Amino acid sequence: MNKSKIQKFAVDGHKLLYKQIAQRAYQYGIEEGNVGKADATEVRGRILSPLEKSQRAALIAEINANGYPQTYRACHLYLVQPHCCASVYGGQ
Is residue 84 helix, strand or coil? Predict the structure, then answer.
């Protein structure tokens, strides 16, 4: 087994996941340096459901408390290793 190819695959996978997290956040009007209003009912021309509104408000509160980069890393960690963050993010 070629160890360097496995390492490259893992690094590329993490980079792709970071991009996908940033893209999803962008869809909800959240960017580094501009998170918008937590009580928004519409983002980028799309009306948010009550669940999306509450999740977006919680994410914005987390970003305001810890900063965008730290929250971004925490989201990545949760997606990669959900068992280690279950108590923090309400997972199983």
Answer: helix
- Buried b / exposed e over 45-65, threshold 16 CB at 10 Å, is eeebeeeebeebeebbebbee
- List, for residues 38-79, the tens digit of each pLDDT value: 888 898 888 989 988 888 888 888 888 888 887 777 776 655
Distance of alpha carbon 76 from the chain centroid: 7
> Which tokens in the block code for residue 65?
């408390």
Query: What 8-state DSSP symbol labels residue 83?
Result: G
As a whole number of angstroms, the distance between CA 53 and CA 49 comes to 6
SS3 43: strand
pTM higher than 0.70:
no
**Which residues on neighbouring strands pair with residue 70, listed in sequence order?**
none
Which ranges of 1-92 would DSSP assign to H, the alpha helix? 3-27, 50-66, 68-80, 86-89
